[in-house]
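User: I'll paste a sequence; please echo it back and then give the predicted structure.

Assistant: Echoing your sequence first, then the prediction.
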Amino acid sequence: MRKDHILKSMLSKNINMTPNGFVADKLSPHEFTEHHELFFDKILEISSTNIAGIDGYGEFNDDCTLEYATCKEFLIDTFSNEKEGYWYNWTEMYETTLLQREFFEKYFKEMEERISYCEGKRFLIYNNTFFINMITDGKTMVGFPDWSRSGIGDFLLDFAIMDLNKPYLKIPELFFQYCKNRNVVIEDFKERFLCMAYYKGIDTLRWHASIDDSESCMSIMKSISELENRIYTL
């Protein structure tokens, strides 16, 4: 059974995998703020999916199985210099691209020091919550058509990706208040959010450096650098 069919059988019928609408990237900041709870509701519904019988962490392969036994193995191995394929010997980029070794290693260490907070936090994750990958009607519906990066991990990764994409929308600030309003308690929220945000942030930074996208690199570095102060003031 292919991945999409397996996921469809797992997901609630309220999660739309074939939505009609427009990409959420077209929403103005005001429009998103007006309807942010709808996005949060749906992402939390994804995370509430029953994953009994699925072991491990990381991104699903075509059979919906996972490569890593622990969260630490998943996050650390993402940055292995020996990984076959596109990222083989990627550390050569320190000498050939915009990627700054000092910056990357600083936030890799920040991520690594927080992994223990995310260990054992196993949820279905969409892992692709950039606004261009979510479809909405702008009022009542949010759908998720592209499950190619989905897997198992800390569900705060999906919120961290949204914030990395559009930090000016203040996703963690809105989500923190959303949880407070609903009496939703997320254990070690701040450390887990930072771990997931640093993981996705430096991985995305590495990608944009590899294609010589200087504007995105500067934006990502600014966002990563400012995040700790934002989170610790919540």
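The radius of gyration is 17 Å. The beta strands are 22-23, 58-59, 123-125, 135-136, 142-143, 151-153.
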